[in-house]
Specification:
56% of the residues lie in helices and 8% in strands. With 962 residues, the chain is α/β, with parallel strands linked by helices. Among the domains are: 177 residues, no CATH class; 201 residues, 3-Layer(aba) Sandwich (Kinesin); 275 residues, no CATH class. The strands form 2 sheets. Strands 1, 5, 6, 7, 8, 9, 10 and 11 form an 8-stranded mixed β-sheet that branches. Helix 1 runs parallel beside helix 6, helix 6 packs across helix 8 and helix 24 runs antiparallel to helix 29. Bound molecules: adenosine-5'-triphosphate (ATP). Adenosine-5'-triphosphate binds next to helix 14. It comes from Cocos nucifera. This is Kinesin-like protein KIN-14F. Pfam families: CH, Kinesin, Microtub_bd. InterPro entries: CH_dom, CH_dom_sf, Kinesin-like_fam, Kinesin_motor_dom, Kinesin_motor_dom_sf, P-loop_NTPase, Vik1/Cik1_MT-bd.
């Protein structure tokens, strides 16, 4: 055996020493260090097991096993075969020990051979060793010599020692295991206990760590350092504990050895240690408790636990209470929420129904106003212009209900505020779109055959042109009412193309100084001030494709000139004259509105061109809307008030319900049928005349003329049916007289004079009568005086009367006269038909035919006619008689009768007016020159106009203003 292996031993060790060195690992460590230098860094030279002093005993025991432990560790690290310390003891696996040594030897040889390649242990070397000193390879060589030199009892003793060493090391390893278990199991708890029990937290040198620069390390490092420190302290404490245990154990062993006064066997030693451990088990358990529960303070743990339990119970209880409360609250909240939801729904329903009601209310209000025919008035407030930002406004409040409160900031006080009400008030921020939205329905009704007039009123610069035309026609957003209206009309026309075919024509009139020229001048109030009234008229004629009915609508869009006072406009010269004209026409407009508001019998339309143009829109069946514009500036306060007052007056005007101008295709058919029937009757009449039944004296005629020319006789206000009955009751002679009277009346009866504002339609109707009568071949009638063209019918009447007083007409003359009248009437009828485009217009010829046709009911069979007492009701009655004619008693004729009866009831007052229409005056002739006056509107008013006031309407359509 290499000498190195015996280092630390005496030069010639005894067997005992050798065995001890073998058992305590000294030899093995030396061998290993020889094979692998430094594998066991520190080899304990002289490990002893004897325990002499209290402090040194345990130390020596540990040192005794240290070499073996180091050897085994080093061999394990070298991945060589290893064994357990217990294998060296008695009963251990000596094969493992031998294998380990052989493996070490093989490794040594491989290294000696140069360590080429990877060293592998070839396998277990079959060692035929026995526990009782079988030679191993390790012991060959020099060591063999050593063994050879030794005696058998030495070997035996060596083996026994080895066994003992093994047992001790086993105990030692068990102890180590227990220690590691202790530490593993209780390490952290120990740490916890240490921290809580010994309250070392205050002593933790945190500040020092920070100061020393360690504190700047990451939080993790800080934590680890802290734990290290705490563990260090805990280990110190634990070591102290162990040392005290060791000391106690050492003392115990010492005492035992003293008592025994002999060497102690291993089982005895183990028994002593076990007893010691048992005695200390209580302390150990309390220690473990301590470790588990964090120190002796846990003595109160039970109490604390109980306390905590109680607290927990309390908490549980209060939690339950809270839970119940929360649940209650939740239920309450849910209920309240439901209630709120319900309330909200109710509110929503109420709000929506309120809004609906408001809307309905508004609609109803509008409907009532429509029925009344009120002129609608919308007020629009102009915003301050860009250079007037700081100015005070006279507009105090604008209500949703169409009210506006005006205040004079310069004169504060009770009377400074004034409230006005209109259909709607648009504030300064209202857009063109909003303004038009409320106007749109009116414009749309033009397409349904209504006449509509929209006019803008207000002082200069108040925004009339802005509303009607807009500031910039190139931008759709700023389009005014005019552009939007036209756009709308064309859109509707396109959208209805499948149903109605529309013709739209546009006409523009500018009334300047009561003339037709346009002028734009400048005043101090507004440089761009328009000094003329601008009237844009749109005529719409639609034909319903399904029924062939005709709709005629007309839209006047009027931008009036500024309404400022002359003195305020600071105008002189030409401007002054303009302003005067404007004011005159506007005050004429005011007069018309006043008269209309008071339902006056005379409406002074003719006082200005403006009122003439707007006559049909102001007094007819039109829908009229006025935009009244106001300027919010304080210095315009006076103008604003007067403007609003005027607008309120306008709003109070009732025009009567508007009516659509619709002429049904059926009516046209009926007219055609009438004309056919008329010609049939005509032929019958001439046949009757040929038979010469008519025997009327001039005196009779004259008496009729006289009675008619007095103008007092009026057509009785009764229905045609009733009148027929009356006729039936009368004698044939009366009927005949009535007929004769009717003939003469058409030329002779002088109607009473009417006011200037009489119905143009009536005038137009009267005019052909005159012309026809005057065109009559006078020579045939042989009247004493010729009637001049413009002579009044009163003159003719008197002529006829004069003649009647002196001359008796023979039957032939009368027959000629009738024939002549028939021709005239026929002409007149045709002319009327042509001119009026098929309107239900009764004329003299028609009346005559009808009067003839009445014979079967009111006349005798011989055809003798009773002249009618009045002329005017023929128009309706004759139609009825005509229908009832046996020759034309078809269902169609009955239907016609029914229809015409209805119409005649409406027509009645109108016919009466026509009867008293004054004849030719210069004005009437002027009217007749206006060929365009014969439009559908006028015809409609002739046939269906219910009221006398309406009959005064000027015909709508084109005007040629001088
Ligand atoms: N609603 C509005 N919003 C913005 N600017 C407006 C409005 N109304 C009018 N204006 C501006 O006020 C000025 C005068 O308006 P506008 O010419 O329309 O008045 P007017 O009453 O037609 O005057 P005139 O009587 O001289 O014709 C214009 O510069 C116009 O752009």
């Amino acid at each position: 055996m290499d000498r190195v292996a015996l280092e630390g031993l005496a030069t010639e060790p005894s067997v005992e020493e050798f065995c001890l060195a073998l058992r305590n690992g000294l030899i093995l460590c030396n061998v290993l260090n020889r094979v692998n230098p430094g594998a066991v860094p520190k080899v304990v030279e002289n490990p002893v097991i004897t325990v002499e002093s209290t402090d040194g005993a345990a130390q020596s025991a540990i040192q005794y096993f240290e070499n073996m432990r180091n050897f085994l560790l080093a061999v394990g690290e070298m991945k060589l075969l290893t064994f357990e310390a217990s294998d060296l003891e008695k009963g251990g696996s000596s094969i493992k020990v031998v294998d380990c040594i052989l493996c070490l030897k093989g490794y040594h040889e491989w290294k000696l051979a140069g360590g080429i390649g990877v060293w592998r242990y070839g396998g277990l070397v079959k060692v035929t060793s026995s526990s009782k000193g079988s030679p191993s390879s390790l012991l060959d060589g020099t060591s063999a010599e050593l063994y050879d030199a030794s005696t058998l009892p030495h070997n035996q003793q060596l083996l026994e020692i080895l066994d003992l060493v093994t047992e001790v090391s086993l105990e030692e390893s068990n102890a180590a295991n227990v220690l590691s278990l202790l530490f593993d199991q209780f390490g952290l708890r120990l740490l916890q206990a240490f921290l809580t029990q010994y309250r070392v937290a205050e002593d933790i040198p945190l500040n020092e760590m920070v100061v020393s620069g360690l504190g700047i390390l990451s939080g993790l490092s800080d934590g680890l350092m802290l734990i290290d420190w705490v563990l260090e302290q805990a280990v110190k404490e634990f070591c102290m504990l162990l040392v005290s245990q060791r000391n106690q154990l050492g003392l115990l062993l010492k005492r035992t050895l003293k008592d025994c006064s002999k060497t102690m066997s291993k089982p005895e030693l183990v028994e002593i240690v076990v007893r010691f451990l048992k005695e200390n088990s209580c302390r150990l358990s309390s220690f473990s408790k301590f470790c588990f529960c964090g120190g002796t303070a846990n003595a109160n743990r039970e109490e604390r636990l109980a306390h905590q339990q109680k607290e927990l119970e309390k908490l549980k209880f209060s939690f339950c209470e809270m839970k119940v409360k929360v649940e209650c609250s939740q239920t309450k909240w849910e209920e309240e929420l439901k209630m709120l939801e319900h309330h909200m729904q109710c509110l929503q329903v109420n709000t929506s129904s309120y809004h609906k009601l408001l809307e309905e209310n508004r609609l109803l209000h509008n409907q009532v106003q429509d029925l009344k025919g009120n002129i609608r008035v919308y007020c629009r407030v102009r915003p301050f212009l860009s250079n007037q930002c700081d100015e005070k406004s006279t507009i105090d409040h604008i209500g949703e209900d169409g009210s506006i409160m005006i205040v004079n900031p310069q004169k504060p006080g009770k009377d400074a505020r004034k409230i006005f009400s209109f259909n709607k008030v648009f504030g300064a921020n209202a857009t063109q779109i909003e303004v038009f939205a409320d106007t749109q329905p009116l414009i749309r009704s033009v397409m349904d055959g209504y006449n509509v007039c929209i006019f803008a009123y207000g002082q200069t610069g108040s925004g009339k042109t802005y509303t009607m035309s807009g500031p910039d026609v190139t931008t759709v957003e700023t389009w005014g009412v005019n552009y939007r209206a036209l756009n709308d009309l064309f859109c509707i026309s396109r959208s209805r193309a499948d149903v109605v075919s529309y013709d739209v024509s546009i006409q523009m009139i500018e009334i300047y100084n009561e003339q037709g020229n346009r002028a734009v001048g400048a005043t101090a109030l507004n440089e761009r001030s328009s000094r003329s009234h601008s009237v844009l008229t749109v005529h719409v004629q639609g034909r319903e494709l399904a029924t062939d009915s005709i709709l005629r609508g007309c839209l006047h869009l009027v931008d009036l000139a500024g309404s400022e006072r002359v003195d305020k406009s600071e105008a002189t010269g030409e401007r002054l004259r303009e302003a005067q004209h404007i004011n005159r026409s506007l005050s004429a407009l005011g007069d018309v509105i006043s008269a209309l508001a008071q339902k006056s019998s005379h409406i002074p339309y003719r006082n200005s061109k403006l009122t003439q143009v707007l006559q049909d829109a102001l007094g007819g069946q039109a829908k009229t809307l006025m935009f009244v514009h106001i300027n919010p500036e304080v210095n315009a306060f006076g103008e604003t008030i007067s403007t609003l007052k005027f607008a309120e007056r306008v709003a109070s005007v009732e025009l009567g319900a508007a009516r659509a101008n619709k002429e049904a295709g059926e009516v046209r058919e009926l007219k055609e049928e009438i004309s056919k029937l008329k010609s049939a009757l005509e032929s019958k009449e001439s046949e009757t005349e040929r038979r010469g039944y008519c025997q009327i004296t001039l005196e009779e005629q004259n008496s009729k003329f006289r009675s008619c020319s007095s103008g007092k006789q009026r057509r009785p206000r009764c229905s045609p049916a009733l009148f027929n009955k009356e006729l039936d009751a009368q004698s044939p002679s009366i009927a005949e007289e009535s007929y004769r009277s009717s003939i003469m009346l058409r030329s002779a009866s002088p109607p009473p004079r009417r006011s200037l504002s009489t119905d143009r339609a009536a005038i137009i109707k009267s005019k052909p009568k005159i012309v026809n009568i005057d065109d009559r071949p006078i020579s045939r009638l042989q009247f004493p005086d010729k009637s001049s063209i413009n002579r009044s019918s009163a003159t003719k009447s008197s002529a006829l009367t004069n003649r009647s007083s002196s001359v008796c007409w023979n039957p032939q003359e009368i027959s000629n006269l009738r024939t002549a009248f028939s021709e005239h009437e026929e002409k007149q009828f045709k002319s009327a038909l042509n001119v009026r485009q098929g309107g239900i217009r009764k004329n003299m010829a028609e009346s005559r035919i009808k009067s003839k046709h009445q014979q079967p009911f009111g006349f005798d069979s011989g055809g003798r006619e009773e002249p009618h007492k009045k002329s005017n009701f023929y128009e309706t009655e004759n139609e009825c008689s005509l229908i009832e004619s046996p020759a034309h008693g078809s269902p169609r004729a009955k239907q016609l009768k029914h229809h015409m009866t209805r119409i005649s009831q409406n027509v009645e007052p109108r016919v009466l007016v026509q009867a008293v229409e004054p004849l030719s005056s210069g004005k009437h002739e002027n009217k007749l020159r206006n060929g365009a006056v014969h439009n559908g509107k006028k015809e409609r008013s002739d046939t269906t106009e219910p009221g006398l006031r309406r009959s005064r309407s000027l015909p709508r359509g084109k005007f040629i203003l001088s």
